[in-house]
Amino acid sequence: MNANVPDSKKISPFLVFFLIHTMQTGVGILGFQRFIAKTAGYDAWMSIILSGLVVHILLWMMFKMLKIANGDMTSIHTLILGKKIGKILSSLFILYFSLYTVTILRSYIEVIQVWMFPELKTFWFALAFLILVIYIVFGGFRTVAGIAFFSIVLPFYIAVLFIITIQYSDFTNLLPIFDHSVKEILLGSRDMTFTVLGFETLLFFYPFIQNPEKSKKWAHLGALYTTMICIYLAILAFGFFSEAQLQKNLWPTLTMWKIIKLPFVERFEYIGIANWGIVILPNLCICLWCASRLAKRIFSIRQKTSIPVIATLCLIATSLLSTRDQINIVTDFTAKVGFYFNTIYIPLLFAGTLIAKKVRNRETHS
Amino acid sequence: MFNFFKNSEKESLDKILAKSADFKCLEYYNNKSNISFTLKFLATLVDEKTIQDSVLPYLLEGNFKQIEDVKQIVPLPDIKLSEDISQIEDMIFNGSVLLTVNGKDNKFCFLGAKKEIGRNISLPEVEFSVIGPKESFVESLDQNLNLIRKRIPVKELVIEKKTVGTLSKTKVAILYIDGITNTENVNTVRQRIEGIEFDEITDSSYIVQIISDNQNSPFPQLLDTERPDRISAILAEGKVAIFVDGSPHALIGPTTLVEFFSSFEDYYLNWILSSFFRLIRLFAVVFSILVTPVYVATLSYHYELIPQDLMSTLVASRRAIPFPPILEALFLELTIELLREAGARLPTKVGQTIGIVGGIVIGTASVEAGLTSNILLIFIALAALASFTTPVYRIGNTIRLLRFPFLLFAEVWGLLGIIVCFCFLLTHLIRLTSLGRPYLEPLYPPRMQDLKDAFIRLSFDKQRKRPFLLNTKEPYRFPKKAKKEKKDIEDE
């Protein structure tokens, strides 16, 4: 199997903006303020900027690697480690993305169960949602990108509506600046990184971009936009809650919605949470798509077979997670894996790619 | 094309035709040149007055010695000499008279004397507009093509003809402008029409369904219109039009979802007005699909969502109602659907009575009887009204249908269900194509350029570029104007 993708199945470079941004925003953004404020207090907005910078550096590395390997993650692995070990390492990512799918789906269902429907049956809702995801992924990557696009354009009004909370906020909460040590801010940015993970999917859909050189700009803009949204939401939450209040709040973003009142809508969070379904939908699609694409690249399994199989496994795993503690364990585990993958494995891989390129060059020259 | 009538090879054409009462085989004798000849035709297809006035007198009294003379002596425009026997069947069924000189069977002649029966060009009924031309297509292909030729009198307008249907032998014309329309689109249309395998094509609606990209979609994937002005406008844009003989509706492709919500009158109004009306129509569609599902969702699950003042109104209207919101909504929706179905099949005068009986009597009575709440009745009536605002009838039907899955999802999971159903719809639309081009364009793939004539319509000087969707050979509609220096207020 090679990475060649027919031109008609590729997407325009600027859609990468939406793909990167949508993967970074998911359920995490509903409650990240608490985590970062835990260590960095109300200086945590600096942590967000720091972690944003890290994302940009990682993105730069990824593009560099992908250009050298001229393919996707499996090509990079093959380039550095050879076919066999490369395949084994790549196949681990099928597990990673399946786990990712389960985490996203289960934590969204948890939000629904806590805020909207205490009696919602995890299995049935997950089933309906996964059928939807399968329907999307069967449409190919273009359809997945389309859903990513709409998932940002359609719920945009929510971001604007947050302005209503400003009149209830006190932004002097943010002062004084720099009353936390550098170490605390760095720790805060580590916690922040959990929220903005997901851009590593670039390593897998890269061959599907028309003119990948042009997409660089859009990928970075997407990451920048995520950072801006996070700062916006964090500053709003810091102004809205006192530090002690914030620590008791699992989902500060959701709680802020409660203050929004329109003439015909009393409790906006219902609309918000329902709408969040659109926001997390592309994350599931991209994860499932990546997993099935990997299966195709490594084991040459038809995507039409692997997608239903992976989805069924995810459905079983999702329904098995029932208590808050279990969900927490899985979420933390996924976040850790993602964190280490992004901050340690990718730089290592980057170094490996550069060395491999040098070695190749020398071989061809001599 | 496969042949249905296996025995027709064996029996001669004459013998088979002789079974029909309208087949005429008449022998004549010209005294002047001592020649006897035969006319064979189908009386139902041929205008006998033409034969009487402009064929027979000349053949009987003219200088008619051999078959080649016919062209000189008979004053008809459509005369064709031939030796090819295989043509006979086609020509006779197209309203020609077969002329043979007795004794010399190898050569014969076709005289065109087709009888034209059909209605005259009339007002557009489905796509009526107050401003603009008032003619609409009729069932005759030639008349329809004439209407288009008159509007685009250039040599680049190509009319390709095909015949489809093993029994109906329906004539289908493909229209496009050479040098503008993308050849790929024309080829797709041509291939699909040639690929049609069906016996009886009675209307263009058959063709839409057969050549659609996805036959299992409730969305029409080709636009149909009865307005010649619309057809000429889309031809100029670079689209392909398909005409079907016997159908007063021409087809347009490739099309997009947004196009179904644009009325052609939009182009006759100032761009600010037409943009406003388009937005209203769009709102109407969303409202029409979502209002009852949202009602069911909020009243079944999320009554906290409604502010207190509004809640008391709602509760008061629902207090005496014994059914859950979903049954109430389904009952009313079905009533409206029944009224529409009943009204659609009835003559206009009876239809009005149905409207009164349905709208006023059933509506008021069911509220007074305590079966439904009057607020829901208002919503349903508004939703029905809103669904009538769609300028293309076909998409209105789709919207009627869409409401029901939304209702069911709303009943199961409330607002969340509506979002899930919406996502299914969105995915379906993203995946849908019209002649291989994305159906949801310019929304997805997002193309800013094509938004100039989608939800709003910008003024004509902004419409210089042809739609990007069509990938036309000539992307500009008119040359760029030289940039004028911007005048100040008092400048001349």
Provide the structure class of chain B.
alpha+beta
CATH homologous superfamily of chain A?
Answer: Amino acid/polyamine transporter I
Strand content of chain B: 5-15%
Number of strands of chain A: 0
Chain-averaged pLDDT of chain A? 89
Into which percentage range does the β-strand content of chain A fall? under 5%
Query: In angstroms, what separates the terminal alpha carbons of chain B?
Result: 70 Å
H and E string of chain B? HEEHHEHEEHEEHHEHEEHHHHHHEE
Helical residue percent of chain B?
40-55%
Brief sketch in words of this structure:
Chain A is mainly α. Helices cover 75% and strands 0% of the residues of chain A.
Structural notes for this entry:
- The complex is a heterodimer of chains A (366) and B (492).
- Chain A is mainly α and 366 residues long.
- Chain A has one domain: Up-down Bundle (Amino acid/polyamine transporter I), CATH 1.20.1740.
- Chain A has helices spanning 15-24, 32-40, 44-69, 73-81, 83-115, 122-138, 141-153, 156-161, 182-195, 202-205, 212-240, 243-247, 252-257, 268-299, 303-320, 324-365.
- In chain A, α5 (83-115) runs antiparallel to α16 and α6 (122-138) crosses α14 (268-299).
- Chain A starts with 14 loop residues before the first helix and ends with a helix.
- Chain B has three domains: 13-112, no CATH class; 141-255, no CATH class; 271-437, no CATH class.
- Chain B has helices spanning 13-18, 48-61, 70-73, 87-93, 141-151, 183-194, 204-211, 228-237, 271-300, 308-318, 325-345, 348-368, 374-387, 393-431, and strands spanning 23-30, 35-42, 79-82, 96-101, 104-112, 157-164, 170-177, 223-225, 240-244, 250-253, 433-434, 437-438.
- In chain B, the strands form three sheets. Chain B has a five-stranded antiparallel β-sheet with strand order 1-2-4-5-3, with helices on both faces.
- The N and C termini of chain B lie far apart (70 Å).
- The A-B interface holds A 11-12, 15, 112, 116-117, 120, 125, 128-129, 132, 135-136, 139, 142-143, 146-147, 149-150, 261, 263-267, 270-271, 273-275, 277-278, 281 and B 301-302, 304-308, 310, 413-416, 418-420, 422-424, 426-427, 430-431, 440, 444-446.
